[in-house]
Design a protein that fits this description.
Blueprint (H helix, E strand, L loop, with lengths): L1 E6 L2 H5 L2 H8 L9 H10 L8 E2 L1 E6 L2 E6 L1 E3 L4 E4 L11 E2 L5 H11 L4 E8 L3 H7 L6 E14 L13 H13 L4 E5 L8 H13 L10 H12 L3 E8 L2 E12 L2 E9 L5 H14 L4 E7 L3 H7 L2 E11 L2 H25 L1
Helix pairs in contact: 3-8
Length: about 350
Amino acid sequence: MIKIKVIKNIIDFRSLKQEWDILYDFSPSVFQSFTFNYYSWLYDLSLNSNNNLSIVVVKKGEIVQSIIPFYIDAKKRLRLINDIHVDFCDILVNKEFDYNLFFQLLNDKLDYKFIQLLNFKGESKLAKVFSHIKAKRKYLSSHTEYSVLNISKGDFPYNVLNYRSKQKHRINKMKKKFKDYEHQVLTVDNDYFPRNELERLKEIMIEKLDRKDFFLTNPTISLISKLYKNGEVILSVMRHKGKLISMSIILNRSENNFQFWIDLFDTVPMINIINYINFISYVSSFRDVSINFGRGRYSYKESNFMPQFSSLYNCYIFNTNFDKYCYVIFDKIRLIFKLFYKKILS
């Protein structure tokens, strides 16, 4: 029979690292790493006294079978750490367990209004666990997508078999246009973390109104720095006449698995696109790679790279039917306004 333990303080959180790292070996995303979750909590979420750490550890005997990095926010939502900035939420699991018993134990241990699970893939461990929970007050929705491009080793764009001549011509034209610009991939083994340049590009984007004032807060930049120093983030950068003008922050789970996470760039048109092209050209010249373009269907990524899109899901589990119905109505109204707004902009 399983039992659960709830981690509620930073000392006990830190003591989980060894067991966390063992389970992380079964996870495909840096978003589930100990570094990402620990420093997301330490640098950001813990600063709000209304947030309560509530990491759930599932054990059978003395063996840890799952770690679920929950916290409870000011609205009493039980949610995953840093779910707003995470493109793909998931949990750490290495063996199946009694999911309905787990849900009963969770309700006994924690006082929350409802469970909020955001941005998870249909094939994720999180989806599997919570799909087994028989809760009539569960609400599942999908409002966004993610995209992936699998590329064989070779000369990009010729190593993407489904690219037509028009697509290849467009990419080669971009390469020719920016041939005098320097591209470099920065890694912790060879390069310092360019925090000053990152902050300069951030300010340019805010001044241009490309991003809002709260884009890349200091806690988030500190988190990125930790991930870089731990080898879980690499940086693809473009320079012109020695000046850094574009930076893509890329999650590096393995030598052939990369995810574009955050992009920064100055006023040079298309500089972000050529940064993507150069990075893909570089990494695919060594081996087969999988390039994840992250959450959202953006026209510039779709038209330039033609990745394959898949749905992301949100799940909410409520304590009462009334809470569920109220949220469903709110969600439908929000979706209608979102579609109406997009139609106006187009």
